[in-house]
Specification:
The chain has 165 residues and is of the alpha+beta class. It is built from four helices and ten strands, in the order ββαβββαββαβββα.
């Protein structure tokens, strides 16, 4: 079956793993981040930066790779206080964008998560499985972004191409 969807392998993203109490992180980052999402498994966007609330006291910051140096300078991960952790993990994930009218059907081939808009809304994000691998899945304009561990990028690209065939 042919699907009406497009699959794009995205360029490297600037990624930061943030852990600690929201208040401590907010004080340290002083307005560098988008607003902290209120609910787990949700995200917020500001100025090309996305902050994902993925677990208790755990967030992922995603931005364009061109923004990485500015974020490093603003966040100062090596100087952060002991009650928080800020780690640059930009080289760890490869993201794919699946868009189009059948994006949810393509995603359902590899992802067990219920991605219906009524369950996985516009600000939803979650770690789940994608073709048996741990993956970060979030909504984007017209579909989904799916990040997998970088060493599996070629394998996922192959699986997605086969899904579309």
């Amino acid at each position: 079956m042919a699907y009406d969807a497009a699959i794009d392998r995205l360029p490297l993203s600037a990624l930061f793993d943030l852990k600690g109490k929201r208040k401590a992180l907010a004080e340290w980052t002083k307005g560098t981040l988008p607003a902290f999402p209120e609910h787990p498994n949700s995200l917020s966007h500001t100025d090309g930066r996305t902050l994902c609330f993925i677990g208790p006291d755990h967030w992922i910051l995603r931005a364009d790779i061109e923004d990485e140096a500015a974020l490093q300078a603003a966040l100062k991960p090596a100087q952060s206080p002991p009650e928080i952790s800020l780690v640059t993990v930009s080289d760890t994930h490869n993201f794919f964008r699946i868009t189009g009218p059948d994006a949810d059907q393509v995603m359902s081939i590899g992802c067990p998560l219920d991605l219906h808009i009524s369950t996985f809304g516009p600000d939803a994000v979650s770690f789940t499985e994608f073709f048996g691998l741990k993956a970060l899945v979030m909504r984007c304009e017209g579909g989904f972004d799916c990040g997998v561990e970088q060493s599996f990028g070629d394998m996922i690209a192959d699986y997605l191409a086969r899904a579309m065939a």
